[in-house]
Design a protein that fits this description.
The chain is α+β, with helices and mostly antiparallel strands. It folds into 3 domains: 165 residues, Glutaredoxin (3-Layer(aba) Sandwich), CATH 3.40.30.10; 81 residues, Ribosomal protein L6 (Outer Surface Protein A, domain 3), CATH 3.90.930.12; 103 residues, Outer Surface Protein A, domain 3 (Alpha-Beta Complex), CATH 3.90.930.12. The chain contains 9 helices and 21 strands. Strands 3-1-4-5 form a 4-stranded mixed beta sheet, with helices on both faces. A 4-stranded antiparallel beta sheet has the order 19-20-15-21, with helices on one face. Strands 9-14-13 form a 3-stranded antiparallel beta sheet, with helices on one face. The longest helix is centred in the first third of the chain and has 41 residues. It is elongated. GO terms for molecular function: oxidoreductase activity; rRNA binding; structural constituent of ribosome.
Length: 421
């Protein structure tokens, strides 16, 4: 319906009032978002200004527990490091997002020394094993850390450390975080710090500010979360697996494969010598589904370095014979495939295989290609590239079919080791 451009028209006044309400609601939402960002930045700035060493962790994370055990038990740091449990903090998610933007590290734990990150739990363990943790702290902290921060092994001057553990900043008294034998992740004492008492505010969400005719806001949908989920994978005797910062390296008789899984929020462990565990805490349904995916990916890496993978492809023709030439590039070491006389065309189709993939013509079967390699992803992708480049367009696929199709996929190469259970 067309509304006349009359300012006195009641219908136009109703439309204008609705638009003004939407603009005001959007403005309030933007102000709330800016307020959240300011609270987060002010919180990080105040914490960094008062403490030399800050540990951003989560109470249920085993890597955070390991880093805190090293920094709080093995070393005595004066003043004691300040621990921020992001899962219990009022600004937990905004703090983690701000740390990811400033330090480039999305996961926990994240250890800051004078406002600069030294990494996570694996980095602290590596520095501790090399006896470079104290020197790294002094190097990053500069003069302030060298004067106000002293590191010494457990047992040396322990009484002095406990005696000067409490510090005074201005008129307020701050007690450092201390581990209790009853609860490793207890933060009751650190909750007393004034830094944790922020002004209350509501997180801005469009659903929360939406009003209905009944006069109440809509309730958030509650997602069911699993407290702890785990998948286990046995490791063969002739295979070595190294995992650091969620980058998995697998070595076996056929070579080495590396897979970066840092984008998946899972935790790896070694409950037994020949078993690795993939765990997730407080995961939703989609998050739990990734556990089996990660287990399958690592299992494919193990099969690749022990037995390998082989794909077989057949090229089928009725009148025009398909000519396939395979050459290995001397500079890159990759295989190049040329397909000629496809459906009688003069156009030459070319593809380059993925790294680590070997392509040969079958010695026993006519018109067959064999693709083999250690990485299942690279072998299958190379076979898919060949099939895709020969796809027939604007024809009935029931009659033409696939001139180059995958005949057998996922077959393992010669058995170099016992099968993986």
């Amino acid at each position: 319906m067309t509304v006349p451009k009359d300012r006195n028209n009641p219908e136009r006044q109703m439309q204008g009032s609705g638009t003004d309400e939407r603009v005001e609601a959007k403005t309030e939402l933007n102000i709330a978002i800016l307020t959240t960002s300011r609270h987060t930045r002010r919180s990080v700035a105040e914490i960094c200004a008062r403490y030399a060493v800050i540990i951003f962790s989560k109470s249920y994370c085993p890597h955070s527990a390991r880093a805190k055990s090293i920094l709080l038990d093995k070393y005595s740091i004066v003043p004691a490091p300040y621990v921020v449990e992001l899962d219990q903090h009022l600004l937990g998610q905004p703090l983690q997002a701000l740390l990811a933007a400033n330090t480039g590290r999305r996961t926990v734990p994240n250890i800051l020394v004078s406002g600069r990150s030294i990494g996570g739990g694996d980095d602290v363990v590596a520095l501790d094993e090399k006896d470079e943790l104290a020197s790294t702290f002094k190097k990053l902290g500069g003069q302030w850390v060298q004067e106000g921060l002293t590191l010494f092994d457990q047992g040396n001057l322990l009484g002095e450390a406990l005696r000067v553990a409490s510090t005074r900043v201005g008129n307020a008294r701050f007690e450092p975080w201390r581990r209790t034998t009853r609860d490793f992740h207890s933060t009751k004492e650190s909750d007393r710090l004034p830094l944790r008492n922020f002004d209350p505010f509501e997180r801005p969400t469009a659903r929360r500010h939406r009003q209905f005719s009944l006069g109440h806001s809509t309730a958030h949908a509650v997602k069911m979360r699993y407290i702890h989920s785990e998948e286990r994978l046995p490791i063969p005797e002739n295979v070595k697996i190294h995992i650091r910062s969620r980058v998995v390296t697998v070595e076996g008789p056929r070579g080495k494969l590396v897979k970066d899984l840092s984008h998946i929020a899972v935790t790896f462990g070694r409950p037994e010598k020949d078993v690795i565990s993939i765990e997730m805490h407080h995961g939703a349904r989609k998050g739990i589904a990734t556990l089996r995916t990660v287990r399958t990916i690592i299992n494919n890496l193990i099969i690749g370095v022990t037995k390998g993978f082989k794909y077989k492809m057949r090229y089928v023709y009725a009148h025009f014979p398909i000519n396939v030439n395979i050459e290995k590039n001397a500079e890159t070491g990759l295989y190049d495939v040329e397909i000629r006389n496809f459906l009688g065309e003069k156009y030459v189709r070319r593809i380059t295989a993925q790294p680590g993939v070997e392509i040969i013509t079958s010695p026993n079967v006519k018109d067959e290609l064999q693709l083999s390699g250690n990485s299942l992803e690279n072998v299958s992708q190379s076979a898919a590239d060949i099939q895709q480049i020969c796809r027939v367009r604007n024809k009935d696929i029931r009659k033409v079919g696939f001139p180059l199709k995958i005949d057998d996929d996922g077959e393992t190469v010669a058995n170099h080791s016992p099968p993986v259970p």
